[in-house]
Specification:
Number of strands: 2
Structural class: mainly alpha
Strand order of the largest sheet: 1-2
Oligomer: single chain
Shape: elongated
Strand content: under 5%
Number of domains: 2
Distance between the termini: 55 Å
Largest sheet: 2 strands, antiparallel
Order of helices and strands: HHHEEHHHHHHH
Number of helices: 10
CATH architecture of the largest domain: Up-down Bundle
CATH class of the largest domain: Mainly Alpha
């Protein structure tokens, strides 16, 4: 009973420390680049031992809110979470919690379509160049035998470049997460050869057409073409 009470107090202390530090960072009281107080000061402030504090710091580091720097002048520093942090968390959720192919397919139709529309409104010259370079890579890959996996990876990179062109960090982070899951599922599937042949012949044309609509600044056409592209992908990989 005493051990159970001790575990309860420890759990509550860990949660309290984690929540207070997270709130301080997210509210801006601790700003990106600021060094957190030393372990001794934090332990005294929270009334916890070093093991509990270090567990909370490891959790903050794992979620991308702090980074721990070694050496002279080292310590725990607040950082701005990157889009990749959001993507990694979402990819883990999709892969480990068992989201179905149908879940992914349903979500991507609207999500990717709106990404294309926002990219058509916001893409700059660098974004267009990146998309066009990936279209060229896709055309080259489509001419090679046994390059189906390479073409799928290029398609994923193109979708991620398109998400970056939206200039929306949430869209970028979500794209990084779901595309990791899409690629994993694509590589794990056993499909008829005709399905992969269809992907090989249509992906370059599809992404070229969407890129052209984005370059032209036409969100409606970009959305329509993207939805058709994702729906075709879904039919060929899920059917």
């Amino acid at each position: 009973m005493a051990a159970e009470a001790q575990r309860t107090r420890r759990s509550r202390s860990f949660d309290d420390v984690l929540e207070q530090l997270r709130e301080a960072i997210l509210s801006g009281r601790i700003r990106p680049g600021d060094r957190l107080p030393g372990e001794r000061q934090l332990c005294e402030s929270f009334g916890v031992g070093r093991p509990t504090l270090r567990e909370a710091l490891r959790s903050l580091e794992a979620t991308g809110l702090i980074e721990v720097r070694p050496g002279k002048g080292g310590g725990s520093y607040a950082v701005t979470p990157s889009e990749a942090t959001v993507g990694d968390a979402l990819a883990a959720l999709v892969n480990l919690r068992g989201a179905s192919l149908e879940d992914l397919a349903e979500f991507r139709v609207d999500f990717e379509g709106e990404n294309a529309a926002w990219a058509a409104r916001r893409a700059d010259a660098g974004d267009i160049s990146a998309l066009e370079a990936l279209v060229a890579d896709a055309r080259t890959a489509s001419q090679k035998r046994g390059a189906r996996g390479q073409l799928a990876r290029i398609d994923v990179r193109w979708h991620e470049a398109l998400a970056r062109a939206t200039k929306n960090r949430l869209r970028i982070g979500i794209a990084l997460g779901i595309h990791d899951a899409v690629l994993r599922r694509h590589e794990a599937l056993v499909r008829p050869a005709a399905a992969d042949e269809h992907l090989t012949t249509t992906i370059p044309d599809d992404i070229a057409a969407i890129t052209a609509a984005i370059a032209a600044g036409d969100p409606e056409v970009a959305r329509m073409r993207m939805r058709a592209h994702v729906e075709a992908w879904n039919r060929r990989t899920n059917g």
